[in-house]
Specification:
- The protein is mainly β.
- The protein has 3 domains: about 120 residues, Cupredoxins -  blue copper proteins (Immunoglobulin-like, Sandwich), CATH 2.60.40; about 130 residues, Immunoglobulin-like (Sandwich), CATH 2.60.40; about 130 residues, Immunoglobulin-like.
- It is about 5% helix and about 45% strand.
- The strands form 6 sheets. A 6-stranded mixed sheet has the order 10-9-12-17-14-15, with no helix packed on it. It has a 5-stranded mixed sheet with strand order 11-19-18-13-16, with no helix packed on it.
- The two termini are about 25 Å apart.
- About 45% of the residues are buried.
- Bound molecules: CU-O-CU linkage and copper (II) ion (2 copies).
- The site of one copper (II) ion has 6 residues, from loops.
């Protein structure tokens, strides 16, 4: 593991981008007009970040999926006023993964993310360094942030006008902040690091040919081995890393990733260039839910309920003054999360916990599918479903847990846990 110290400066700022033809959209971004840089951390390294708020409103800097002390986590308690700066410091203690960062001010998270505040974080470690997987950034290791948005006639992201209490669903897909993207690839294995950065929309990624690919990582790390799949579904804030082997597909004309409804998510432009073929490692990680974790009694119950503005957790809305749970640092507990149906049947809530990664023990009493047998920080809970997770916090502090439909979060579908 690394022992370096690296310092970054991350500014939240306003921007202007020609996203649509001939129109200039007012946006928000980190160190730029829209979205943010990909921060590349190494396990073991100490990271200092100078966070600067250059917006005309309060914001926070939240590191989604990163195991950091509560005070560095950037939840709604740590707001920066316009013009304010704050330096945070933490050590990277977790394994290789694709994480992200975004703002978290109370009641304003959805709008700020919608307008463009989001960036990626890669963690690399000694395991990822030795694995045989595509690693050439931008060539065969591609960051992909999928977000749906609505532009008004002037090309603006008028959040207030389109905001929906159950989560704002857009009619225009942005991939890494662009419309109508095309990804050029060679005939080789290409690793796609997928982030669903939408406020509320779920995506199911599949090839338009129906051919399979492998998933190699979940939110918080590698799966034990590549899992062959025909599709992967991500709810807001979930990530997956997949590898598509373009040298093995039947035809590479008109190839694209499509969504459940057949709409195009990402077309590929496959060159005839045959790149050196690589054999993906068959063993990627050592992840396991232990017998002890499987047999542990449930010590926390979380009930998700509602829709629109009537969303709540355990019958309550978020109260910044109230600590809902406590847990001891370094002690594993099993939580049961239940998505209680309503008369309308209910909806999927992507449930997220700050400051740590957890393991799925079971979904309705059944062991999770292979592609969920890895570290997670967000999990889709289906209506009526009960999910058990084993969770431990490495650090102390106050952390949020919430639905990652950002409008649900802003409507109070959030609670707090204090780790002591
Ligand atoms: Cu993506 Cu409260 O976080
Ligand atoms: Cu988070
Ligand atoms: Cu929700």
């Amino acid at each position: 593991d690394a022992t370096d110290r690296t310092e970054y400066t991350i500014k939240a700022q306003t921007g202007k981008v020609d996203i649509l033809d001939g129109m200039t959209t007012e946006t928000l971004g980190y160190n730029g007009d829209l979205l943010g840089p990909v921060l590349q951390f190494k396990k073991g390294e100490t990271i200092k970040i100078n966070t600067i708020n250059e917006l005309d409103q309060e914001t926070t800097f939240h590191w989604h999926g990163l195991e950091v002390p509560g005070e560095a986590d950037g939840g709604p308690h740590t707001t920066l006023s316009p013009g304010e700066k704050e330096q945070i410091e933490f050590k990277v203690t977790q394994e290789a993964a694709t994480l992200w960062f975004h703002p978290h001010p109370e009641g304003k998270t959805s709008e700020q993310v919608y307008k463009g505040l989001a960036g990626l974080i890669y963690i690399e470690d000694s395991n990822s360094a030795k694995l045989e997987i595509p690693k050439e950034y931008g060539k065969n290791d591609i960051p992909l942030v999928f977000q749906d948005r609505i532009f008004d006639e002037q090309g603006q992201l008028d959040y207030k006008a389109v905001m929906n209490e159950d989560g704002t669903i857009g009619d225009t897909l942005l991939v890494n902040g662009t419309v109508n993207p095309v990804l050029p690839v060679e005939k080789e294995q290409v690793r796609l690091r997928l982030l669903n950065g939408s406020n509320a929309r779920n995506f199911t990624f599949k090839l338009n040919t129906g051919e399979s690919f492998v998933q190699i990582a979940t939110d918080g790390g590698f799966l034990n081995e590549p899992v062959t799949l025909n599709e992967v579904t991500l709810t807001p804030s979930e990530r997956a890393e997949i590898i598509i082997d373009f040298s093995q597909l039947n035809s590479t004309n008109d190839l694209s990733l499509i969504n459940e409804d057949g709409s195009i998510l990402l077309p590929f432009d496959v060159s005839n260039q045959e790149a050196d073929s690589l054999k993906t490692s068959e063993k990627l990680n050592d992840f396991a839910v232990t017998d002890e974790e499987e047999n542990m009694p449930v010590t926390k119950n979380i009930e998700l309920f509602g829709m629109m503005e009537h969303v709540e957790i355990n019958g309550k809305k978020f109260d910044p003054e109230r600590i809902d749970f406590t847990q001891e640092q370094g002690v594993t507990e099993v939580w049961e999360i239940y998505n209680k149906k309503d008369m309308m049947g209910g909806m999927i809530h992507p449930f997220h916990i700050h400051g740590t990664q957890f393991k799925i023990v079971s979904r309705d009493g059944v062991e999770p599918k292979e592609y969920e047998q890895g570290w997670k920080d967000t999990i889709a809970i289906h209506p009526g479903e009960k999910v058990k997770i084993a969770i431990q916090f490495k650090h102390k502090g106050v952390y949020m847990f919430h639905c990652h439909i950002l409008e649900h979060e802003d409507n109070g579908m959030m609670g707090q846990i204090e780790v002591k």
